[in-house]
Amino acid sequence: MQSNKNYVPTQTINKIMNDTKNKLITMLQLQGEMNCWVHENWTDQGFEWYRAIWIEASEMLEHYGWKWWKHQQPDLPQVKLEVIDIVHFSLSIELQSSKPLEDIAKQVADSFTQPRATEDIKTTIELLAEETLKDQSAHFDIIAGLMQHLGMDLDELYKRYVGKNVLNIFRQDNGYKTGEYTKMWNGREDNECLEDILDTLDVNSASYRDDVYSSLSNQYSAVQ
pTM for the full model? Predict the structure, then answer.
């Protein structure tokens, strides 16, 4: 019998799906913690998560470049960070349903297996903004489409998500909500400094989250 090189054993597929679901459950837990930090009863506040997604999509397009009258070079690290920001707000929308985390994770994982995109990343970004404004819902299938354009897999998404989640908490711990936080670190945005930090850390380390926070603290102390 001729072997099928594209065949993937069911056991392998199940493991991939379980790993995906476990990562998504962790991300949902972290998002819930972050939202509670901002407001203890955040699910009752009517926060416009869809509006945040729309604005982040606009910022993503700006980082990628769209102006035909001037030379622009896509800033891919920043484009990817905008994807992470959109995931934060999209997870928040799903968490408001009060469904079990495992059910939400499975739903999101299923969406990631069916990416939706146009032929061009710029119009895919616009598609996300349009669909979000239309129904004020999360669209992980379009997010998956954006990830395809950028060559991002779930492992990279997880690495960057945890990193940005820690940065968000670090900002809150240092006066972001009250206006005391300094976002520019020696001429660079804290987002850019985060990129450098993530490249030096082991995402599989049990202390990964704490390592990111410690590294941010060390760099921020030099800014003050």
Answer: 0.79
